[in-house]
Design goal:
With 351 residues, the protein is an alpha+beta fold. The protein contains six helices and 20 strands. Helices cover 26% and strands 28% of the residues.
């Protein structure tokens, strides 16, 4: 009888240990059944150091923006806390960012804060932008494996001196064998006037479309593509609808390749990603290829998961125009110590 109780106790102990091991594993397995994809324009995220190789050094202690180390660390902390909030403390599979000066500022966010537990890796190329701001991709190596990446230049045949942010292309393989093609964009701004700069955004759209077309092998051979970024145009503007050919799901036909998931602010949880005077506009968008919408057996878009992240701490009262406005780092030369002049956007993919 004594031996019986001994073996019974040992068996229960073994069962308990097995549960301890496999319950967390099952929870993690369920989390891996979805992949969050996000984008955020970080608003002039510069390091505080003088770079003698660059003309633009306004974001330094003695520059016009008086960008000190303490201001840099405050913004770094604002960014990582926001990303933790976006991800709900789980890793984001792939995140695009814009307006970053270099890999140093990204390392300070993703490798020198609590975000480091998520095993993020960074893809960044130094571009030709005159102020030195670039786009980048951050991805979780526990979810995605990088196959290839490159920086795609936007060239203006009418002006050899034209400079803009690159389009960053990255090809990934997920842990279940699916391939995902990702493009991160920050198209030419409207500085100087919307109509005066419309051709420059059309150039960017055309450059991107050529690359997308090169990945496709006809209507029945469209790969899984995610296009994200700050386009400095809305979903209804010609650069996105006509040149790139990205339309809403309701408008997409059999010959269309791309579906814009950010065409309707009412379905996104908030009316826009940035505010100009009284009006909110959706400049930050995520666009996917049709197979991510139509396929259900493998990696695909989770229906109605596209959203604009709009936590209360990203806003402040708008005394001039009513309602709220974004809690920015700067407004012109005036320092506010906030987060960004854009809201993050995100979608979920699932198996």
């Amino acid at each position: 009888m004594k031996d019986f109780h001994f073996f019974k106790t040992r068996r229960l102990l073994c069962l308990y240990l097995i549960l301890l091991v496999f319950i967390p594993f099952e929870s993690n397995a369920q989390n891996r059944g979805k992949l969050q994809i996000a984008f955020w324009n970080l608003e002039n995220f510069f390091d505080p150091f003088v770079d003698s190789t660059k003309i633009y050094n306004e974001f330094t202690e003695n520059g016009t923006q008086h960008w000190t180390k303490s201001r840099f660390y405050k913004k770094r902390n604002n960014i990582y806390k926001t990303i933790l909030s976006i991800s709900e403390n789980d890793p984001i599979a792939v995140m695009g960012v814009a307006e970053v000066e270099n890999q140093y500022v990204l390392n300070m966010v993703f490798n020198q804060t609590p975000l480091k537990k998520h095993n993020y890796r960074i893809i960044h190329y130094e571009g030709d932008d005159r102020r030195g701001i670039d786009v980048a991709v951050v991805y979780c190596i526990d979810m995605m494996q990088l196959v290839y990446s490159e920086a795609i230049k936007i060239k203006n045949p009418k002006n050899d001196r034209f400079r803009s942010r690159d389009i960053l292309y990255a090809k990934f393989s997920d842990r279940r064998g699916d391939t995902l093609h990702v493009f991160v964009n920050h198209w030419p701004s409207r500085y100087g006037g919307e109509m005066e700069t419309v051709e420059l955004r059309a150039l960017a759209a055309n450059t991107l479309k050529h690359k997308v077309d090169s990945l496709c092998g006809g209507r029945n051979h469209i790969p899984k593509i995610v296009i994200m970024g700050d386009f400095n145009d809305t979903p209804d503007d010609p650069s996105i609808r006509d040149v790139l050919g990205a339309k809403s799901r309701k408008e997409t036909g059999r010959d269309d390749v791309l579906v814009n998931l950010f065409t309707d602010g009412k379905e996104l949880g908030f009316e826009g990603t940035l505010k100009h005077q009284f009006h909110w506009q959706i400049f930050d968008q995520i666009i996917v290829s049709r197979p991510l919408i139509e396929e259900k057996d493998r990696l695909h878009y989770r229906k109605n998961s596209a959203s604009i992240f709009h936590a209360d701490f990203l806003f402040q009262p708008d005394g001039a125009n009513g309602g709220v406005k974004l809690f920015r780092t700067y407004m012109g030369p005036k320092y506010y110590g906030g987060y960004s002049d854009h809201l993050p956007v995100r979608i979920f993919l699932e198996y």
